[in-house]
Amino acid sequence: MTVARRNAFIGFPVPLLGERPARLPVLWHSPEGATLVLDKPAGVAALPDNWYGRNPVLTYALNHQIEAGKPELRRMGLVREQLAVHSLDPELSGPVLFTEEPQRLELLRNALGSGFWRFTFRFVATGGGNAEHLQCSLPLARHHGEARMIVSHTTGKAATTVFRRVAALGGAYAEWEAQTAYPRVHQLFVHAREAGLSVCGDFRYGGCAVPSVADLKRDYRPSRRFETAPPVYPGPFARLAALRFGVTEEEAVTVEAPPPKKWSSALRLLREHAG
After folding, report:
1. Which pick of 55, 128, 203, 263 has the fewest CB atoms within 10 Å?
2. Distance of alpha carbon 59 from its chain centroid, rounded?
3. Are the beta carbons of 126 and 172 closer than 8 angstroms?
């Protein structure tokens, strides 16, 4: 195993990942297997999905840079097409695993279904009562006519999410951790709702709104007349915080993604001002 060198990034010019240039952190890199973990931003799909035809696709963008022979990629030995091992909801940021070897891709995807991988999410929600731990094991299926998941005991695929309250954030809000061995699309949001949690910023499955600075601070004054205060965190207040992966349990590696700056500042605002 080789950990990515400090401050290793891969750059993506406009329009590969959107309307602004991006520099994604390389969280982990193994030159022996040409395998790496990138910190995917929210708003970007890891793999193509017909639900997200308008979103940039990280796999396409990465391979575009490899084909262009970018120096930072050559220094890491990345000269062949990379294949994403797993998906990650475009709404969420977090680690995505890639490999260039089809044989290793098959081994990793087989291991993904074996149960020892761990996807660890963090999110902010209301609800849950006084519970410190919750669990949901309802099977999930794609809706035939809409871009959303549904609980189905006939066509749904097995899915289990274990929730743990991390910290109260004042008032009705709390930070939660969710773990699963195999995340289905939108599993975090559907299972959270079924467990009695309302994820902030998740409007597809009935979550609550992310509060704004004006909601939290009574003395807040906009810098401009008629300005509307934005939410303290954009989009769903959730992310993939860590990924445990490997071909075998003995060689499993855990890679953590540092929280975005907006994440840390939003938690601080909630702790200090959510009454």
Report:
1. 203
2. 15
3. yes
CA 259 to chain CA centroid, nearest Å? 11
**pTM of the model as a whole:** 0.94
- What is the SS3 assignment for 245-273? ECCCHHHCEEEECCCCHHHHHHHHHHHHH
pLDDT in tens, 140-156: 999 999 999 999 999 99
One-letter amino acid at 77 equals G
Angle at 137 between CA 199 and CA 121, to 5 degrees: 40
Domains in the chain and their CATH numbers? 1-112 (3.30.70), 120-162+182-243+259-275 (no CATH)
Is residue 195 within 8 Å of 151, Cβ to Cβ? Answer: no
Which tokens go with 190?
């559907």
pLDDT digits (tens, 9 = 90+) for 151-187: 999 999 999 999 999 999 988 999 999 999 999 999 9
Exposure b/e, 56-72, CB count within 10 A at least 16 = b: bbbbebbbebbeeebee
